[in-house]
Amino acid sequence: MRTFEQISALRTYLRGLRQERKTVGFVPTMGALHAGHLSLVQRAKGDCDVVVVSIFVNPTQFGPQEDYSKYPRDTSRDMQLTSNAGVDALFLPTNEDIYPAGFQTWVDVTDISQPLEGVRRPGHYRGVATIVTKLLNIVQPDIAYFGQKDYQQFLVVERLARDLNMPSTIQMVPTLRETDGLALSSRNAYLSEEERSAATLLSRLLSLAGRRVLEGVSSAQELRRELEALVSEEPLAALEYIELANPDTLQPVENLEEGLTLVVAAIKIGKTRLIDNALIAPEGMASPRPRVSRGV
Ligand code: AMP
Hints:
Layout: E1 2-4, H1 7-19, E2 24-29, H2 35-47, E3 50-55, H3 75-84, E4 89-91, H4 95-98, H5 110-113, H6 117-120, H7 124-139, E5 143-147, H8 151-163, E6 169-173, H9 193-198, H10 201-215, H11 220-232, E7 237-245, E8 261-269, E9 272-280, E10 292-293
Parallel strand pairs: 1-4, 2-3, 2-5, 3-4, 5-6
Antiparallel strand pairs: 6-10, 7-8, 8-9
Bound molecules: adenosine monophosphate.
């Protein structure tokens, strides 16, 4: 596996690959890698000749009260994992190279950044959209991979790639879960043993929502109340939100019979904020497939 800190060195390497007509798959991450990240890598390896992974804990997407300084970092372990997974190139840019003195250009994806996480984490998607734009410009991949786990982030990236005429295809990869349903996340490392078992609450409520809609519950309001009641039974959990939303616009839905619905939740387990989501559909409707947005 090749590792690059400098943008110019990575560019030279990528230029060589393009001359050989190799296709490039790209997986941007913030490190503290786990099997969820590696499932994106596996997908990229299946689709593309060469796989590039970036690790950059992006300061501009963390709010002032958030966990930027204590976000888990373990570069040598990440290098081992990516190398074992067959990653061709690891990009480890420095803060100084990504945000040099005088930096003043921001990417703001307006409507789709507003609801859900946008309300609770002001500025978060501006930071995400800016770093993803920069990384896509640096790597210029054929396909870039993003997890369904961060569903709204996927929509933001899909939108910016279209709006800014980026040639890369933006591919969603399904959420990888532990056997008890908990979505893999770097932040799971913060959970105590007791909190770890309470954290299954998120996937339990997504499963309950899926079952209820199959059983014919049509009122989003009624279902939301039932899901909120489940959260209130867990003493270690504090609800931030549960929403039943249109999967394209993220606007709230009222009638669950009308089509596919995104059920999405943010819940604090102890001090750790976890998010998860699922697409749910009424009986008889084809089960959803991960989204892909081709470059333009
Ligand atoms: P992060 O390092 O948290 O920024 O995540 C990097 C990428 O991995 C993002 O596209 C995430 O959506 C994706 N990802 C994180 N956790 C999972 C998971 N459990 N399953 C699939 N993808 C994931």
